[in-house]
Request: fold
Amino acid sequence: MTVTLITGANKGIGFETARQLGDLGHVVYLGARDAGLGAKAAATLGARFVQLDVTDDASVRDALATIESAEGRLDVLVHNAGVLGEGIVDGPKALRVFDTNAVGIVRVTEAALPLLRKSSNPTVVTVSSSMGSFWAVTNPDRPEFAMPLALYAASKAAATMLTLQYAKSQPGIKFNALEPGTTATDMTSAFGIGRPAEESAKVVVRLATLGPDGPTGTLQDELGELSW
Reply:
């Protein structure tokens, strides 16, 4: 059995990723900040719930300790938790967005590394964004060029860079970031755009199920590697 942890998985892309990986036979630990919503989502999917707030060190440690006690290892980690940070830009909002979208990756990865090292095919997937790609946001032909999401874009650039740096420092573990495609979720509801979450989850699942010889240190979308 492949043991998988997905953060921010009680709804949206995370929930659909949990569903699809569960259908593939993974033992899925559905991480969510809200215990009530997370437990309900896990029960719906037949997954296992762990309370996990990526902005809280104790919560992250406890979640990984639960998985260690039950499974002894972790094969796949999906960094899915994130916030948009739209609207007025100020210091407190910037701290919250970066704490969730970037620092949270560090918290969870560092706590998970000992368990990932016990896997025969350890894989980490970061749900990033092409909004964090300098190539995309400076290209007038790309939709990212006109999106007014400074904090989200900057924090996703950091998320992708963290993924690359972990790939370099942890050569025995695959680390890849992805652009899942514009998706209709709670985060994008104000824009009225996006495809169903189950379609974007397929991109996550592809990178979460790479074989031992799969790529590492990349930013990808459903068509392949992206410039960034």
Observations:
- The domain at 3-225 is CATH 3.40.50.720 (Rossmann fold).
- Helices lie at 12-23, 35-45, 57-71, 91-116, 134-137, 150-169, 197-208.
